[in-house]
């Protein structure tokens, strides 16, 4: 599932491509995907985009906003005047656009189109009043997030309150927003922390290293435009590149580049692939 860097990449590109466009019409091909009344956004001009955890928000000038979560396989693809010389679509855009997996089409002025594709159909789009965005239950319950209000002090406090494995706590969106499996694995390796360590038994100094590691891996993720595992593509139709730069994630059976002694092992923790160097992450 896309994590903070992937959703940040979606938000940034949507902002760049959509700003100034007016929504002319909306074609909803799958009612389950689209919640709320599309009439409320027709005629609205897009003024900007925001992100809360893994939710992107497209704000209009008519006091309405579009909230969206791409979940496992949702993809936004823009084609129009704000993307000059588009590269060819990634093969991850199954069926192309518009295609059999295109569930919503936003017709924009000046010939622009924004397509929403979703093979698995878990993603959603919701029209809400702009002043109700922050009170949406999904957003309201998000924990503090890196680069915003997740301070080191707050991070230590969150760890200190839980006896669960630290990796599970890092990925709990109600404890802290935006960190999913790939970046949790990499941050734990970077800080030399065993993913199974009970969160509250992590010493304050180690918690600081882990906090810095979380920030660092997310920064790297953003720098590479996210990781295109599964179906992730950015709205220009191309793939992110972090998957070629992961530290621990996906390295099963490979030697650890830091200690040169351990070989990465993989196991499942709460059903999610967990990668550790048995030497560095005792
Ligand atoms: Zn190692």
Salient structural properties:
5-stranded mixed beta sheet; 4-stranded antiparallel beta sheet; 282 residues; 2 domains; alpha+beta; 11 strands; N-terminal domain of MutM-like DNA repair proteins; Helicase, Ruva Protein, domain 3; binds zinc ion; 23% helix
Please, could you describe this protein's structure?
The chain is of the alpha+beta class and 282 residues long. It has 2 domains: 4-140, MutM-like, N-terminal (N-terminal domain of MutM-like DNA repair proteins), CATH 3.20.190.10; 152-276, Helicase, Ruva Protein, domain 3 (Orthogonal Bundle). The chain contains 6 helices and 11 strands. A hairpin with a 4-residue loop joins strand 7 (102-108) and strand 8 (113-118). Helix 1 (4-18) packs parallel to helix 6 (204-223), helix 3 (152-160) packs across helix 6 and helix 5 packs across helix 6 (204-223). The two termini are 28 Å apart. Bound molecules: zinc ion.
Q: Could you tell me the radius of gyration in angstroms?
A: 20 Å
Helix content: 10-25%
Q: Main β-sheet, in a few words?
A: 5 strands, mixed
Poorly predicted runs: none
For the residues shown, what is the average pLDDT?
A: 96
Number of strand segments: 11
Ligand inventory = zinc ion
Q: How many domain modules?
A: 2
Number of helices: 6
* N-end to C-end Cα span: 28 Å
The arrangement of helices and strands along the chain is: HEEEEEEEEEHHHHHEE
Q: How much of the residues is beta strand, in percent?
A: 15-25%
Give the strand line-up of the largest sheet. Answer: 2-9-5-4-3
Tell me the name of the CATH class of the largest domain: Alpha Beta
Query: The CATH topology of the largest domain is what?
Result: N-terminal domain of MutM-like DNA repair proteins
Query: What would you give as the CATH superfamily of the largest domain?
Result: MutM-like, N-terminal
Please identify the structural class as seen in this structure: alpha+beta
Shape: globular
CATH architecture of the largest domain: Alpha-Beta Barrel
